[in-house]
Amino acid sequence: MSKKILSAIALGGCGLSLNALADVQVTPNTTVGSQVFADVSHISNEQAANSVAPDGTGFDVKRFYLIVDHMFNDVWSANLTTDAQYISSPSVSVTTAPVAAGTKPVTVTTSTTNSGAVTEVFIKKLYLQAKFDDAFVLHAGSFSSPWTNFAEGLYSYRWIEKTTTDRLGFANTADWGLHATGSFGDTGVNYALSAVNGNGYKNPSRSKDVDFEGQANWVSPFGVTVGVGFYEGHLGQVTAANQDFDKNTASRLNAAINYQWEGLRVGGEYFVAKNYKTVNSLTAGTFGTSAVIATTATGIVPSDKAGGGSVWASYAFLEQYSVFARYDDTTLSKDRLSGLKDKYFNLGVGYKPIKQIDTALVYKYEKVDNGSTSISGADANGSYTIGGTNALTSGKFSEVGVYMAYKF
Q1: Are 168 and 330 in contact (CB under 8 A)?
Q2: What does DSSP say about strands 56-71 and 30-47: parallel, antiparallel, or unpaired?
């Protein structure tokens, strides 16, 4: 596909007319590409022994990125990366306006979330970059979050599954703010620091204060990489309207290690997160309620912790073939409902026909005990619920299918 056509597709996805782009040329300093994650699989999702959605056989497009990079000069550059999400139903609020006696009431629409079942294109990354030195590169705008970006690089199978903190809702993949990254030559030391709004890339609105995230790692000459990370802030939830409400500070600590030698990769990640989310009640056991800010001036928001780890291994035994596996074990609510646990594993066989395409036959299994939680990993930017109907029941999820990632 020519650069001219790719440019038209990318900019057309941003809402511009393709006809207006008929004569647009990509300069030597501009590259345009795309990356797609897709699968066809069979899913079984049981909640307290009853089948619930999603289930059955079908095709998913998990991610569809359109990526534009432009170099102004050796220091300045810019990036635009779009993503897509599916919205299944509209959300409309209506109000009947009060009128005088004897006159006809008038119903007016006060808010509309969307117009119906649609797939929306939105911004994932949009930043201006200034590379002053390898040890100091500045990014202003929506840019990759320090820890998720690092952990995905170690795991290397993001197209099969998100990393632990991302899929369970304890980390963003990108956020709006000011970011610094760098590497220190032959030392193998790298870092990333961010001051962000805290809402994630889908919500660029500002909050009362910025959040802070950082990560540092060392890549040894012996194939071992070790890294640590942190996050602290209010996740974009504290504003001038609720700043006096009862609140907690969300925080997270991460550590990871990975060993890579020729076709072998073995690694793991551990995290502790405080006051990100909690259960809505000890009886219902539904995990996902905010543990940052109370909903009313007289409300109390409980403090809660979560923690767990992930281990993975893969081996490319031939140039085009590999095997891989991963296991996660997480306690979602240590303080409020300590029996609420999530256990997940996947395993598969990969086949890479050409450099730009990855395919794999994959089996996944997950079980949530003593409650339920929402997992980020369904169809385009969606999520699904796994677990029981209350804090005394459990649920399980399994999937088998063919996964694919390709880029152009």
Answers
A1: yes
A2: antiparallel
Q: Which residues contact 211 (CB under 8 A, 6 or more apart)?
A: 175, 195, 196, 197, 198, 231, 232, 233, 234, 235, 236, 250
The set of residues, in sequence order, having a beta carbon less than 8 Å from that of 7 and lying 6+ positions away, is 21, 24, 25, 26, 30, 32
The Cα–Cα gap between 360 and 43 comes to: 16
Q: Which residues contact 136 (CB under 8 A, 6 or more apart)?
A: 180, 182
| Tokens read off for 353 | 């026909």
Give the residue among 206, 259, 266 at the shortest CA–CA distance from 236: 206
Query: Is residue 182 within 8 Å of residue 190, measured between CB atoms?
Result: yes
Query: Is the alpha carbon torsion for 236, 242, 244, 246 positive or negative?
Result: negative
Candidates 345, 310, 332, 303; CA nearest to 394 is: 332
Residue 59: predicted pLDDT = 94
**Would the pTM count as exceeding 0.70?**
yes
What are the structure tokens assigned to 199, written together?
Answer: 């809402």
> In the structure encoding, which two tokens stand for residue 46, read together?
């049981």
Spell 297-324 as b/e; 16+ CB within 10 A means b. Answer: eeeebeebbbbbbbebbbebeeeeebeb
Residue ranges of domains in the chain, CATH in brackets: 3-86+109-407 (2.40.160.10)
- The CA distance from 144 to 155, in Å, is 16
**Pairwise CA distance, residues 91 & 336, whole Å:** 32
Residues 153-207: tens digit of each pLDDT:
999 999 999 999 999 999 999 999 999 999 998 999 999 999 999 999 999 998 8
